[in-house]
Amino acid sequence: MYPLRLKEPSKPVPAIVQEANEKHMNKTGHTGVKRIIKATGYSMQGLRAGWLYEAAVRQELIAAAFLVPLGFYLGNTAIEKVLLVGTILMVLMVELLNTAIENVVDRVSFDSHELSGRAKDMGSAAVFIALLIVLLTWGCVLLLP
């Protein structure tokens, strides 16, 4: 692989753009515990939005409500419990990222475009692969000696 070479800007960046970038990077000014509390709140908003607006997220959260406790019950060792529960949580994570991709694509434009379709298909494929990992992991942990 060739190293990535970033092209130097041909013109100097205007001061107003630099100022906007710096403002954006430090938009809240929160640090430490306050930042963690704020970030947790945003995460809860994301979970709530997923529940309210995305059927797949609702279905997977309901399945997780049953499968997470089942994973703790069926796993014989700590490693098995982590594998069983972790793969379920991974599906939720990938589904939320897929939903975020779909929302951004729809925000940009509802017009059909090859790249928009490709982005949505790739997000869907990621969820599919996560589900295959769940099947493989649960099958190996529960069925193999």
Annotated CATH architecture of the largest domain? Orthogonal Bundle
Total number of strands: 0
- Using only C-alpha atoms, the radius of gyration works out to 21 Å
**Fraction of residues in helix:** over 70%
Reported for the largest beta sheet, the result is: none
Quote the average pLDDT: 88
Counting DSSP H or I runs of 4 or more residues, the number of helices is: 5
Explained architecture:
The protein is an all-alpha fold and 145 residues long. The chain has two domains: 39 residues; 91 residues, Orthogonal Bundle (Helix Hairpins), CATH 1.10.287.3610. It is 79% helix and 0% strand. The termini are far apart.
Could you write a compact summary of the structure shown?
This protein is mainly alpha-helical and 145 residues long. The chain has helices at residues 15-25, 32-53, 55-74, 78-108, 114-143.
Features:
79% helix; 145 residues; mainly alpha; 2 domains; Helix Hairpins
Give a topology summary.
Elements: H1 15-25, H2 32-53, H3 55-74, H4 78-108, H5 114-143
